[in-house]
Amino acid sequence: MRPSAALETSPPAPDRFAADVRHSLSQTPRQLPSRYFYDELGSALFEAITRLPWYRITRSEQTLLRAHARDILASAGPLTTLIELGPGSGAKLATLVSGHVQRTMTVHLIDVSGAALGEAASTLARHGALDVVTHEVEYAAGLAEMARQAPGRGPTLALFLGSNIGNFDPPEGDALLRSIRAALAEGDALLLGTDLVKPERELLLAYDDPLGVTASFNRNLLVRANRELGADFDVDAFTHRALWNAGASRVEMHLVSERRQHVRIPASCLAITFEADETIWTESSYKYRESNVRAMLERAGFRAKAEWRESSFALTLAQAR
Ligand code: AVI
What we know:
Layout: E1 5-7, H1 16-25, E2 30-31, H2 40-49, H3 57-76, E3 81-85, H4 91-97, E4 105-110, H5 114-125, E5 130-135, H6 139-149, E6 156-160, H7 170-183, E7 189-195, H8 200-207, H9 213-229, E8 238-245, E9 250-257, E10 261-265, E11 270-274, E12 279-286, H10 290-299, E13 302-310, E14 313-320
Parallel strand pairs: 2-12, 3-4, 3-6, 4-5, 6-7
Antiparallel strand pairs: 1-11, 7-14, 8-9, 9-12, 10-11, 13-14
Bound molecules: N,N-dimethyl-L-histidine (AVI).
Residues 49, 57, 162-164, 166-167, 207, 214, 283, 285 line the site of N,N-dimethyl-L-histidine (AVI).
């Protein structure tokens, strides 16, 4: 039976989080957007996830960047500009350029989080030869802003690392890669990090770790909704679930209601009855085969030129056609 969702009559709050929660929790199945994981606590929990022995993406990528920085930069050709979407702490870009960049380059960092941009800018400031420009907006808007501000900027390498592409459904991922391509000139390069398909057991341990850090990361969405939207989620009454959807080639994370319960979210003008076992789908993390990565890049106007692999993780350097 379809669970009841009593939508109150007043208009949604102007706040974007409130409006997105209203929209996504009213879908069937119910959802919450994964981009809201990253408040201060969520970012700290994600940082903890990257140190877990079962979550290899970040470590594999750092290993590849450290081992192949010279080759990666050589394949991209002489550069004047770097762009990174979602730079995190700036550690990945610092690893790539460290000791390999002699002349001054401009670096554009794009992220919705001002705190992340501040941290990345100060990490990169320690690498004297970089001029850092930050864009505190969503990726597509940041790319357009960067292209407007620096029209004749010279050879450019864009970076989209950490398999962040995997958190976008394929049509959105294609659209994002197309907007990266639109911001670049023919011959510019893109370095894309993608997590590859691996045995289900390994995938489930990475997204449902024995220490329960990923469970806390997932349930923190409810903590955030309680704090920022005045919601009354009983956080203890929702269980973390990770599953491998082989047909769609993605790990899904859900929050499962342990019992029938009512939740009010005043800022979203929403009151919901969750049935026992009803789920909120909070994240998709797509896993790729190498041929999928090449095809995805082709569709967006790139040609894969070189690839580096470590423990089922790939860095692909592609050139804008
Ligand atoms: C940021 N993103 C690539 C992570 C992933 O693997 O999908 C987010 C994450 N979710 C659970 N663990 C890590």
